[in-house]
Each structure stands twice: as structure tokens, then as C-alpha cells.
Amino acid sequence: MKPPSDKVYDAPREAVGDFTFDKAVATVFDDMVSRSVPFYSEIQRMVVEQAADFAEPGSSVYDLGCSSGTTFAALHPFVKPDVRFVGVDNSEPMLDSCREKLAREAPDRQLRLVNADINEGVLIEDASVACLILTLQFIRPLRREKLIADVYRGLRPNGALIMVEKVLGEDSLFNRLFIKYYYEMKRRHGYSEMEISQKREALENVLIPYKTLENRELLLGAGFRSVDVFFKWYNFAGYIAVK
To answer: Which of 53, 183, 231, 239 is the residue whose CA sits 20 to 30 A from 45?
Structure first.
């Protein structure tokens, strides 16, 4: 079933407020993210194959900022039946979407959904995998180190954190170019200049990206013994970190 089309910013607004994951966004989120994130389906495929390799029988897989449950739904066929899914999100409409999707696509999976703001930290227990897919960029910078430490603490030995982020270029030249290429991609995916402009304004004070190397240092600083970049496209990057 094709998701509803993203029309959230297709009408002019006198004032553009901060972006929130409200019901209007939750309704069209799958279309929004597939058109706004380069190679989104391939990133999800890569996340799933890595998560499947690290998910241990009898353990939990956490998705922090689980949104509409796409990662869980894709992972379900590839992990043992006794692997528990725990999704955390601070948007009840997103959790509703996740609940509905998993009821259709993984009805027999043990699932726990938690409405919580991970800016305040998170309790992770007996996890072999934790995912932060386009989530850390929405966490206030001063809270990121604690969040990654919480994740590290809750992972089993040899557990993995899989993270995807929008990132900054390592210097201003590349940053300008990468942003230009990114907006060109959004135009190719059918977004108008007004939609691009209004979405950019809405995200300005909400989505705060780090440089690729800054994210890597954050993971290493938390204690992860191995960290690598598994995906890179201009101003987007995917990381895997093993405890």
C-alpha cells in the first residue's frame, strides 16, 4: 500500500513554526522520509542486515526514535522469534503508526513501545542491538554524550549501535556543496522550492547535525571498541559501533 503523499509544507505559511512529529507528519512520514533521505530504502536494508547479524536470541533490539516502525518491520523476518523489539519515541502519533504497522507485518513479535523523551536519557536493558536512525540529530547537543553512554551501558558485550545521521561537511566549502546537492535531490523527488524553504526553516532550530568525525569521536568516547562508517552520501552518514 502506497503511503499518503507528503504535503505538510506545500501551502505558504505566514510563520513557520519548529518542526514537530505531530499527527500531520506521522500520517505522511513514510513518504516524507523516503523522498527526503537519499537511498533511504538501501539504508534500511543495510541497517537490517547488520542488526540481524548482531541480534542475539533472547535479547532485545531497541529503536530509539522508532517513528513509524519501518526498521522493526523490515528486521522481523531475519531475527529469532524470541528477540524482543523495544521502540522509544516522544510522539504518540508516531507510536500509533508503529503499533499499526507492526500489528500488520509482525503480529507475533514481542513488542514494547515507550513514549519518552530521550533528551532526558534512556534505560536500555539486555540489548544486543540499538538503533538511532536519524534520531541523534534531534537531541540537544549537550545531551548527546549522556544518551550514547546510556546506550553503551545497556548493550550486551559485543552488542552493536547502528546510527544514521544528517551530517555537516568537514569544512565550509564541502558543506555548501553537499547542501546544494541535497536540495537538488529533493527537487528531483518532487518537492517545490516553497516546500524546501519552509521545511528548512522549520528544522533550523530543531535538527542540529555534527560533522562525520565528531559523531565518530562521540561513539569512541563512550567506550565502543570498534566504530566504522557503513554509508556516506554527501551530508548523510551511517555508523556501526560495537561494544
So the answer is: 183
